[in-house]
Amino acid sequence: NIERMVTDLHQGRTQPPKAFRSNLPSFGHQRFIGRATELAEIERQVGEPGGESVVVLHGESGVGKSELAREYARIHREQYPGGVFWIDLSRNAIEVEFATLATTVLG
Questions:
Q1: Which of 15, 20, 27, 41 is at 20 to 30 A from 75, Cα to Cα?
Q2: Residue 99 gets which letter from DSSP?
Q3: pLDDT (tens digit, 9 = 90+) per residue, 37-90?
């Protein structure tokens, strides 16, 4: 019951859930529609959490590769308790991207 959970939380008997750490932009009230086949293929390629894998999305500019990757991360964020982070390497400024991530998301 919700009242008991709130009471337990206020009395220190339980810990509040950790905030999910991410820098992925929100869709707000918009929904990601379609691309189920591609999302399923990414899931198959990534495999089980904890393993190592590399998935390369390729195609012409503007076809939605980045948004597809972000949606996969949004859908599967519970599998990554440390958080899900987007790092843009297209500008050849990896140091700036990591510094921004460290200061804005990780504190």
A1: 15
A2: H
A3: 999 999 998 887 777 778 889 899 889 888 898 888 888 888 877 778 878 777
Residue listed under structure tokens 């691309």? 35
Cα 58 to Cα 22, 38, 41, 63: the distances in Å are 24, 12, 13, 9
The rounded distance, in Å, linking the Cα atoms of 9 and 53 is 38
Amino acid (one-letter) located at 83: G
Stated pTM of the model: 0.64
Ramachandran category for residue 48: left, alpha or beta (phi over 0 → left; psi -120 to 50 → alpha): beta
Q: Which of 82, 61, 57 lies closest to 72 in space, CA to CA?
A: 57
